[in-house]
Amino acid sequence: MKPLTEEMVSRRDSANREQDSTACQPRETAMISRPSLQFLVTFLLAAAVNVCQATAGPPVSKLGTDFGIRLFREVAASAGERNVVLSPYGATALMGIAQLGAAGNTLKQLWSTMGYQLKDKGVPLALRHLQKDLTAKSNRDIVYSANSVFIQRNMQLPNAYLKNYRRAFNGWPKQIYFQDATMATYLINKWVEIQTRGMIPKFLRPDVLDPVLTRMVLINAVYFKGLWKLPFPIEATHQRVFYKEDGTKILVPMMSQSAKLNASEFVTPSGVDYDVIELPYHGETLSMYIVAPFHKNVPLSALTDIITASLVDEWAQSLETVKRQLVLPKFSLESEVDLRKPLMALGITDIFNARKADFSKISTSEQLFVAKTLQKVKVEVNESGTKASAASAAILYERMAPFEVVIDRPFLFLVRHNPTGTILFLGQVMEP
User: Fold this and answer.
1) I need a surface site. Which of 143, 212, 381, 411 has the fewest CB within 10 A?
2) Which is nearest to 203 in space by CA: 87, 374, 88, 20?
3) Residue 291, Cα to own-chain centre: how many angstroms?
4) Is 123:51 a contact under the CB 8 Å cutoff?
5) Which residues pair with 238 in a beta bridge?
6) Surface-to-core class of residue 23, CB atoms within 10 Å of its CB (0-12 exposed, 13-18 middle, 19+ buried)
7) Which residues contact 27 (CB under 8 A, 6 or more apart)?
8) Model confidence at 266, in pLDDT bands (50, 70, 90)?
9) Which residues of 118-143 are buried (b: 16+ CB within 10 A; e: fewer)?
10) 286 pairs with which residues across the strands?
11) SS3 per-residue string spanning 346-365
């Protein structure tokens, strides 16, 4: 994937001016006869950490990111022309927790699909260290990540599982009565609300938890708040036309700023031109990347289908600092994604099968399987990032207007932790 040459950019600029004038599901009987191990995951605004480097082979951070991206591609394919956002790290973290309790072929499917084993030497310790680094106050941008295990009050977890869980995720189970589904839902929702600073107050509906079958709920909650390094002037935001993928036009508030940005133009193996622009947060360890096809008649799937962890690394390394007038929609996305089918499409099937699931490292007395995998994500993007910052509100003007990049068509966005390459959020905006 190579950046466009100057000649290609020139041709493109000219063209732009012209263009502008089951795996099988468990049987119902099996689901009734076996207790369910329900996995639920919540995320907010942008997300947390990345898994570490193992003792050999590719960095686990890259393997985890690549797994999360592949999962997003499955989610985006089923979403079609709808907005969707996923936390690749969050999904990876939850499947990592699943690895701790899995055995046999169930475990093999998890680690072979994810590309690493959580039991490998050095992985649990590095997980904790990376989470600590990402959530350090010195980062300036606020990142908070928390994991929790809610278990049935009379259920005993093996000491080995508790030890391994604490080593990797620095958490401890909380006992709860799932028979009182209303109270259990309230307690879980309250925990999520606290961890997400009130942004997700009602994560679960009471009907999600089965009072008879539910034995365990695993949750990862992430909170992120970051200010742009270069805020967009509020007075420069105006209504402009956004072209949806079906050709219809809508008016949306578009932010605008003239600044030196890291940006470049690329071309896919099939010849599709596209832009990549980096918007750093003020802490400078996290950035949002905007990725959009150059031509309005190109479906966003042309980019979604090719994205990988290696390609994102290539983008980050190939960007050049250029003067640009960037016009970008304000957007706020909130999505709840059922990860069951996307995970099964990647080869993780046994965990959902009441007859095949093997979570004997959690319980040998009860045969558990995963009944639900939910991820709820909320992302808001505005002029300041999340709130105003007077320190960087200066607006500079030049006599000659810089080249304008208008993101007025469907686009991808991702929030990346640059030191490790971890992708915290990845989404598609089809309609701001």
Assistant:
1) 212
2) 374
3) 15
4) yes
5) 254
6) middle
7) 354
8) very high
9) bebeebbebbbebbebbbeeebebbb
10) 417
11) HCCCHHHCCCCCCCCCCCCC
| 12 vs 10: CA distance, rounded Å | 5
Q: In order of start, what are the domains of the chain with their CATH numbers?
A: 60-227+332-380 (3.30.497.10), 234-331+382-429 (2.30.39.10)
pLDDT in tens, 359-405: 899 888 888 888 778 788 878 888 876 322 121 112 222 333 457 78
Q: What is the DSSP letter of 57?
A: S
Q: How far apart are the C-alpha atoms of 285 and 270, rounded to whole Å?
A: 33
pTM value is 0.81
- Which residue has tokens 């690394």? 313
User: What would the pLDDT profile of 358-372 be if each residue is shown by its tens digit?
Assistant: 989 988 888 888 877
Quick one: tokens of 131?
A: 């989470």
Arithmetic mean of pLDDT over the chain: 78
Closest CA to 2 of 238, 318, 309: 318
Of 328-337, 343-352, 394-403, least confident by mean pLDDT is: 394-403
HEC readout, 148-184: EEEEECCCCCCHHHHHHHHHHHCCCCEEECCCCHHHH
Query: Helices (H), strands (E): how many in the chain?
Result: 11, 15
